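ok trying again, last paste got cut off:
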Amino acid sequence: MAKEIPYKIYLEESEMPKAWYNVRADMKKKPAPLLNPQTHKPCTSEELEKVFCKELVAQELNETDAYIEIPEEIRNFYKMYRPAPLVRAYCLEKKLGTPAHIYYKFEGNNTSGSHKLNSAIAQAYYAKKQGLKGVTTETGAGQWGTALSMASSYFGLDCVVYMVKCSYEQKPFRREVIRTYGANVTPSPSMNTEVGRRINAEFPGTNGSLGCAISEAVEHATTHEGYRYVLGSVLNQVLLHQSVIGLETKTALDKYGVKADIIIGCAGGGSNLGGLISPFAGEMLRGEADYKIIAVEPASCPSLTRGVYAYDYCDTGKVCPLQKMYTLGSGFMPSASHAGGLRYHGMSSIVSELYDQGLLEARSVEQTAVFQAAEDFARIEGILPAPESSHAIRVAIDEAMKCKETGEAKNIVFGLTGTGYFDMYAYKAFNDGEMSDYIPSDAEIKKATDMIPRFPGNEF
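nice, full thing came through this time. structure:
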């Protein structure tokens, strides 16, 4: 007889992952390598170590080891807020009247309010181990900046955060949490860096973007002795660290004999989505199972659904390596949407390659529909979700309603990446009926994609 599934499935600390899972090891066709923007040749570890921590570069380039051990010090830190619960959304199922079984992996049980701490603590650990003075980074909605400030303070590292200007202004309390943990926060684009001054001149009055903030953070790291740049999404190393999400999710489902049918995650740069789906995608790649995986992105910044698959700059200032990814062009300036963490012009090379191989599908959703789903979820399940997470909620509800029509009792799993308590200006705009849906025109996207560098091997 099947075991009754509790509302919250909690794992024991002893069941937490002891190693991260590297999905690239099971990919027959690997993601394309990072390229030097000057030579267009694959980046060497020596080149990358000028920007990133040495051990993180090794993880970035490792595509053969399926499992990479999590250092004990990181595992001990994880225990402060992990294992995270896998929640069976009984109340939501009942309210929707769906035969579907809905589960969500809740990553908001820490002060950063999101999954970002999973990678922040790892990156800070390796920076400290290398003997560095500090780290620099960018942040959109502020979850990554908060997480890195927490991790940096834990290891006694200096932390410099460039925060996307519209988020800096929309989320003053998120900014203050970052400062409370000792980090220095600057709105981006700023006048502190050469690239910031250039972007301000080129786009007067700009709201900024993650691409802008990345450029500034990289410049700061490379012009200050004893600093390295760390990134909260997109890179292989980040998706590796975030695999704890998917590994815990799979362990929890297996414990009760549940096989997921549909797995859903919001997609900005790809960190939480990649982390959630990696173990499941690995089973698909090895021919052991089949799943329907859905990446959900904002209609205002639709890199997977409307971008091109090409080598492009990871940042607006064009100082980072080139990465092959689904991209809208590094010059694409997204509207000041409220899902600040999803306002990135490109997508992780791993997620991009899995999408190109047909292992996952992508959908774009408009922000008013997203916030409607967020409020419905908050009223039924009792958690106020982050705008980013609410993209996954929107599609999970849509899929559950399809099950209501067909009568199928599918198991739907989605990533609830964080809480929305610092996003009240966004909720206010929605409640006051002042929120709009901005969708870029084909002409706007073509203008940005036309600026993607063309060189032999980068035809699209």
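cool. The two ends are 54 Å apart (CA to CA). The longest strand covers residues 158-164.
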